[in-house]
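QA checklist item 7 of 12: single-chain prediction sanity check.
[x] sequence parsed
[x] length recorded as 162
[x] structure emitted
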Amino acid sequence: MADSSFDIVSKVERQEVDNALNQAAKEISQRYDFKGVGASISWSGEKILMEANSEDRVKAVLDVFETKLVKRGISLKSLDAGEPQLSGKEYKIFASIEEGISQENAKKVAKIIRDEGPKGIKAQVQGDELRVSSKSRDDLQAVIALLKGRDFDFALQFVNYR
């Protein structure tokens, strides 16, 4: 019998991020506490730019955006937001969406699987994802449960389970 396998990835649906950003922009334009503070959120190339005329307001814009991301099922671990920076009279926050598992993080996950997972599990790093394979599907389920119980500083999804 052939080995069963699945991939561990860290991907974000770009359309869902765009939808969350548009919802946040709409809420910011309509909310009373954002009137007259120059609050805005938009794409700036590959980064997300949040602006307002005070540090508190720009942090509130970030909070609104984070709320919309959570409602759309996107992990906040994939959002890398910087600190508010004063630029002229405006405060700005640049945020980016992190995708892919770095080599060092993939090695950490593979080590956890080898050390704590069932015997006979193979974990191979393939670019920015990790392929986990085994003869037993029950062992693969145990690995998924093990990794879901851990708190990593990056988002994980389990795909291509076969």
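[x] summary fact logged: DSSP finds four helices and nine strands in the chain.
[ ] second reviewer sign-off
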